[in-house]
Design brief:
This protein has 94 residues and is of the alpha+beta class. The chain has two helices and five strands. The chain has helices at residues 59-75, 88-93; strands at 10-12, 18-20, 30-34, 39-45, 51-56. The strands form two sheets. It has a three-stranded antiparallel sheet with strand order 3-4-5, with helices on one face. It is flat and about 60 Å long.
Length: 94
């Protein structure tokens, strides 16, 4: 039995626009199987930009743990160097 033909992540729609599907956004990490340790690992970047990793016995649990960490990062993040509610003057001086 042959291997299924691989398809790329780039898809061209009827209007001729190219979209990328099946890709996480930047800093959202990924989920992969670590064969040496026989566990699923999920990575993401914390608020400081440092890569973090969680592991679990199943892909679903590893992804859920990563998603929980990402949600926590978003819930506890500030609006960046300009604060939560920057004014036009703050942006202009930035």
């Amino acid at each position: 039995m042959g291997r299924a033909k691989r398809t790329g992540k780039r898809v061209t729609d009827s209007a001729g626009e190219v979209r990328v599907v099946g890709k996480n956004a930047n800093r959202e990490g990924s989920v992969y199987f670590d064969a040496a340790n026989r566990v699923w690992k999920a990575t993401w970047c914390d608020a400081a930009g440092k890569r973090r990793t969680v592991s679990a016995a199943t892909r679903t649990v590893a992804g859920a743990r990563r998603d929980a960490k990402l949600a926590d990062r978003i819930a506890h993040s500030s609006g960046g160097p300009l604060g939560d509610t920057p004014s036009v003057e703050d942006v202009a001086h930035y």
